[in-house]
Amino acid sequence: MSIYDFKVKTIDGEEISLEEYKGKVLLIANTASKCGFTPQYKDLQKLYEQYNSQGFEILGFPSNQFAEQEPGSNNEVKTFCEINYGVKFPMFEKIEVRGENAHPLFKYLTEKAPFKGFDLEDATGKFLHTHLVNNFPDYLVGDSIKWNFTKFLINKEGNVVARFESPVEPMDIAPEVEKLL
């Protein structure tokens, strides 16, 4: 099984197979418009522009599961991303990314790339860990998505090769993307 076995709906409601991305390096992220990590859209777009012509795609999946930080409709999310961050990479419909109703794609991603903890030497990683311990301790259980902007790197064969937690900045992933291209 690979990510190519999954179907998803674009932010405009069109169902597609991830097989459309066969042979490309992918970065799949769960996103939100009202999160402290929302400015990562800027660097995700920068990363996309830098490597897209070499066979790289970013797939954004909005989710409202983390402190209701993505309350808007799909159209509102799309407009927000385009106006505020110039997002041109593919965005998909709002989904659940953790728990019983998590989209099968995200169940697969977290199974293939388990949670290995936050970098507690990093101030943002330490802050997020503390925030979850104090406010959402059940989020830290298991391998599920812990917060917005968790990112999964997929190779050209559709295999999950790395997981980057929310505090990891998109441009810090560039060397890993280059290796796979």
State the share of residues found in helices, binned by percent.
Answer: 25-40%
Number of helices: 5
**Given the C-alpha coordinates, what overall shape results?**
globular
CATH H-level superfamily title: Glutaredoxin
Order of the strands making up the biggest sheet: 4-3-5-6
Rg calculated over all Cα atoms: 15 Å
What's the number of domains?
1
- How far the N terminus sits from the C terminus, by CA atoms, comes to 22 Å
| CATH architecture classification name | 3-Layer(aba) Sandwich
Q: Give the oligomer, counting copies of the same chain as homo and different chains as hetero.
A: single chain
Determine the structural class based on helices, strands and strand pairing.
Answer: alpha+beta
The fraction of residues assigned to DSSP E strands is: 15-25%
CATH topology: Glutaredoxin
CATH class category: Alpha Beta
Q: Specify the biggest β-sheet.
A: 4 strands, mixed
Mean pLDDT: 96
State the low-pLDDT regions, or none.
Answer: none
**Record field, number of beta strands:** 6
Helix-strand sequence: EEEHEHHHEEH
Give a nutshell description of this structure:
The chain has 181 residues and is α+β, with helices and mostly antiparallel strands. The protein has helices spanning 40-51, 74-85, 104-112, 123-135, 174-180, and strands spanning 7-9, 15-17, 25-31, 56-62, 151-154, 160-164.
